[in-house]
User: What shape does this take?
Amino acid sequence: MTDALPARLAVIGSGYVGTTVAASFAHVGHHVTAVEIDHHKLRSLRAGRVPFREPGLEALLESGLAAGRLRFTDSTLDAVTEADVVFLCVGAPMGSDGRPDMRMLDSAARSIGSVITDQVVVNKSTIPVGGARWLASIVQDGRPARLRANPVALVSNPEFLREGTATTDFLHPQRVVLGSDDIAIERVAAVYRPILEQSFPGGRPESRPVLVRTSPETAEMVKFASNAFLATKVSFVNEIANICERVGADVGAVSMAMGLDPRIGPRFLEAGIGWGGSCLAKDLKELIATAEQCDYQPELLAAAMAVNGRQRRLVVKKLQERLRVLQGRRICVLGLAFKAGTDDLRDAPAVEILRQLIEKGAFVTAFDPTVRSVPGLADVGLAHDAYQAADEADAVILVTQWPEFLDLDFGKLRSRMRGDLFIDGRNCLDPVKMTLSGFRYECIGGSIGPVATDHERSDAADVGEIDVTDFATTSNGHKGLAPA
Assistant: This one.
């Protein structure tokens, strides 16, 4: 491949990451062939339908197919032989022993090796540090004997995609990290050029991402370290929230004031029931395991994991303290997905909370705008809306911060209930409004409301003053008197 665009790309694996990568690269002008061996998913993708929820991705998929720059196949041979660069996007899910299951990745790498000639292989799968060299060996082992004299050119390119904003994260990243000991890194940098220069339709030339060239091990470590830091930051503020409750401080005001320090920043300082999803826990556990294999005990990382698990139990503990006995109680749970904007239940806090409630004998009814079933929890009733979920409930727990929940008619919700307890696991509601609606309102960390929005924070900075003693400003724009 020369530096001329467009490039011909193969994407192996059309799951969450692979589909986002394929559709996004097609959007910036490359010709992409993506591989999917599941025939049901393959039919869906060829028809322009994404088999999972991700806002904006289906539009990119449809436009790429219509323009002829994107196609899907079940043939690795077909995809790789026509490509200049091969992106490996096969999952490595966590196994029963807590380590990633590399079997699918191993199989895909060998398949690539059997047909590759001089193409560059780019790994976007999250694997243990040092995995790029292992992966290169697997690809090399799969090559015909006549080609084994030439080493495989492999570049480690970690992904930093957030569910709900994946296409934005890929097309407008803060950084692109490429790790390799080979000059092939420049070929991959050329593929990313439209994104690095933000020269594609809808690009943002005023905020170009940084290109980081480094070693494979460093590139892999960047992914783990980033997610470990974010997880630790959330666990830190939750630890502070638990102390705030005991000393009479307000974690909402504490986190807001902390976030004004540019060294700290406001992001990921929202106290609540902790983080979930498929990435943070998996990456944190893998980093802990890697450290332990190197005879190092990462005590801070282990503590971040422990605090997060405790936060999920904290909500049920609060419920039990207020209701005394949970046996036979009716509990409404609002939100099941691990975050708003997705239907993903992997490591979702709600699932663990549901299990705890059922084990304690409670009857649970839940509602989520996107989730239609909860595998393994047949005893959970799923309602058509939040009001039906609250019918005859003794208490409500808000678990996922869906925008729809911020705009509920809380007086109507309260009228459908038998009890009056509302536990806000995301500190996202106006406590005054909730009290006026007839609820006994509880949140995490004695908060009078979540941190101020960026707009409100900048307005306050203009006058050099923010008063959190008299008023609390919530993220949905309400103001309420702070408790005495």
Summary: Residues 216-247 form the longest helix (32 residues). The CA atoms of residues 228 and 261 lie 21 Å apart. Confidence is low (pLDDT under 50) at residues 449-463, 469-484. The chain has 19 helices and 16 strands.
